[in-house]
């Protein structure tokens, strides 16, 4: 069972423990009329705590990217009446790797994932997209790196950056085909943006703009082949992630 807590009256976060790591999503309430769910996490039941908070508000769901632990919980929401927004590449993934990943998981663990429904975005965008809510704005910005379809969400009125998997502690996950230089240059922009006060990543603790700076230092080191260590004690998952990340480095002969 996950933990749902209020950062304030309008912004809630839910964190659930998966086998190897935790994942976090958010719920933004704009007045009495609008609710936005940022990532639906791994299982429909992960969304149960949001029901009384959403109530009769109109519902927008945003996927930070198409990885399973961010999109498999959608059936736990009144998704048929929702608009679902994601990057165009995330929409494309629902026709390619998204169903494959679920099929593999179902065959590995029969019965355990039967309640998952794959619900593709109803609207998609390239570059950026702004959602005007009641008294609040949610800017969606493409930020490829962890995956090609990653986005971040920024709420300028609140200084909140919803970072998905583009910011992660102890270290982000860099796939072999990562557009790492693009990732670094976009994070430089956010690191220099003093409007950013609160950073809400999907994995690892919530923090301040400092989280962006730390991830940037790590990714810059990997990009330029400098030695770097992740922050803090490492679980087996992050130990392995760091080993794989270092292989990305040009010094490793790629
Ligand atoms: Zn993730």
Architecture per CATH nomenclature, i.e. the level-2 architecture? 4-Layer Sandwich
**Ends apart, CA distance between termini:** 42 Å
Major sheet details: 7 strands, mixed
Number of helices: 7
Name the shape in a single word: globular
**CATH class categorisation:** Alpha Beta
In percent, how much strand structure appears in the residues? 25-35%
According to CATH, the homologous superfamily is Ribonuclease Z/Hydroxyacylglutathione hydrolase-like
Overall strand count? 12
Order of helices and strands: EEEEHEHEHHEEEEEHEHH
Helix and strand content put the structural class at alpha/beta
Average pLDDT score: 95
| Main sheet: strand order | 1-2-3-4-5-6-7
Number of domains: 1
Radius of gyration: 18 Å
Low-confidence segments: none
Ligands, ions, cofactors: zinc ion
| Share of helical residues | 25-40%
CATH topology grouping: Metallo-beta-lactamase, Chain A
Brief summary:
The chain has 254 residues and is an alpha/beta fold. 26% of the residues lie in helices and 27% in strands.
Which key phrases capture this entry?
254 residues, alpha/beta, Metallo-beta-lactamase, Chain A, 27% strand, globular, binds zinc ion
Task: Explain what the structure shows.
The structure is a single chain. The chain has 254 residues and is of the alpha/beta class. The chain has helices at residues 51-54, 68-71, 88-93, 97-108, 180-191, 210-224, 236-248, and strands spanning 3-6, 11-17, 22-30, 34-38, 58-62, 83-87, 123-125, 128-132, 137-142, 151-155, 160-168, 198-203. The strands form two sheets. The protein has a seven-stranded mixed sheet. It has a five-stranded mixed sheet with strand order 8-9-10-11-12, with helices on one face. Helix 1 (51-54) links the parallel strand 4 (34-38) and strand 5. The radius of gyration is 18 Å and the shape is globular. The structure holds zinc ion. Residues 23, 67, 69-70, 165, 202-203 line the site of zinc ion.
């Amino acid at each position: 069972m996950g933990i749902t807590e209020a950062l304030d009256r309008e912004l809630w976060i839910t964190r659930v423990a998966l086998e190897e790591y935790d994942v976090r999503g958010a719920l933004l309430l704009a007045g009495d009329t609008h609710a936005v769910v940022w990532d639906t996490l791994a299982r429909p039941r992960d969304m149960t705590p949001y029901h009384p908070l959403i109530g009769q508000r109109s519902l927008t769901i945003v996927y930070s990217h198409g990885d399973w632990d961010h999109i498999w919980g959608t059936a736990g929401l009144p998704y048929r009446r929702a608009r679902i927004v994601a990057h165009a590449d995330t929409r494309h993934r629902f026709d390619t790797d998204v169903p494959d990943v679920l099929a593999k998981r179902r065959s590995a663990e029969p019965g355990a994932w039967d309640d998952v429904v794959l619900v593709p975005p109803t609207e998609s965008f390239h570059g950026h997209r702004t959602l005007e809510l009641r008294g609040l704005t949610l800017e969606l910005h493409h930020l490829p790196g962890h995956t090609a379809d990653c986005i971040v969400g920024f709420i300028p009125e609140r200084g909140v950056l919803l970072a998905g998997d583009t910011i992660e502690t102890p270290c982000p996950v860099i796939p072999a085909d990562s557009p790492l230089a693009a990732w670094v240059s976009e994070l430089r922009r956010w690191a220099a943006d003093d409007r950013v006060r609160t950073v809400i990543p999907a994995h690892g603790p919530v923090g301040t703009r400092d989280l962006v700076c730390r991830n940037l230092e790590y990714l810059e080191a990997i990009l330029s082949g400098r030695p770097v260590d992740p922050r803090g004690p490492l679980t087996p998952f992050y130990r392995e992630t760091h080993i794989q990340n270092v292989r990305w480095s040009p010094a490793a002969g790629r």
